[in-house]
Specification:
Number of helices: 7
Oligomer: single chain
Number of strands: 5
Strand content: 5-15%
Structural class: mainly alpha
Order of helices and strands: HHHEHEEEEHHH
Shape: elongated
Length: 209
């Protein structure tokens, strides 16, 4: 059951986390929909190219998978982000994954319980470092390399991380526009203590709707 994407769909669907829709519309999702009746979902370990011919969510993120020679491609994991360097649906920017499962301890430089601040800075004390990001990237890429060539995988990841940089930059541009609106006094709201505030520091801590 855990190897089938329908199980992941129970939570990972909808406008806030549309990953199942993305998978469903992808080439991988199309192969799954077409050939799933011929796949073996109970074999342990799960053999790429024999038991299944395109990844499901589990193949990429949690399952013990091996190649047809029996070599381990990726070890089983019950920590869903073990193969994920980036948290793409971050608040409010994509950012490295948190170090600890308890995200209630995270504070950005303004003391807010967020992994980033509105200026695009990361709460690095609470997020995985570059070495851990590289490790997770390589683990996931090993799954990709079981079917795809090195140049394709490298190119795909380059596009992926460039998209993160671009979307974060666009979010920062929009945030600065909104901060200017607060600073200029075109929009006001209650600051600490109940009095209106339009200072840049207070704007950096606001949530704009």
């Amino acid at each position: 059951m855990a190897r089938k994407p329908y199980t992941c769909k129970e939570c990972h669907v909808g406008p806030d986390v549309p990953v199942y829709k993305v998978y469903e519309a992808s080439k991988h999702g199309n192969i799954f929909a077409t050939h799933t009746k011929d796949w073996e979902f109970k074999a342990v370990p799960w053999t790429i190219g024999k038991d299944f011919t395109a990844p499901t969510c589990a193949a990429c993120h949690i399952s013990l998978v091996v190649n047809t020679e029996g070599d381990v491609v990726a070890q089983r994991s019950h920590q869903m982000n073990d193969r994920l360097p980036w948290r793409m649906f971050g608040l409010i920017y994509a950012h490295p994954h948190p170090r600890e499962p308890d995200t209630t301890i995270i504070r950005n430089k303004y003391g807010q319980p967020l992994p980033t601040d509105l200026n695009g800075g990361f709460a690095t004390k609470y997020l995985i470092d570059t070495a851990e990001m590289d490790k997770r990237r390589q683990t996931l890429q090993a799954v990709c390399l079981s079917c795809h060539g090195t140049s394709w995988v490298d190119g795909q990841w380059a596009r992926f991380e460039n998209t993160i940089r671009e979307t974060n930059a666009k979010t920062l541009t929009a945030t600065r526009i909104l901060t200017d609106i607060w600073t200029a006094g075109y929009a006001v709201g209650p600051a600490k203590g109940g009095s209106p505030s339009t200072s840049p520091s207070s704007a950096a801590g606001r949530t704009f709707g």
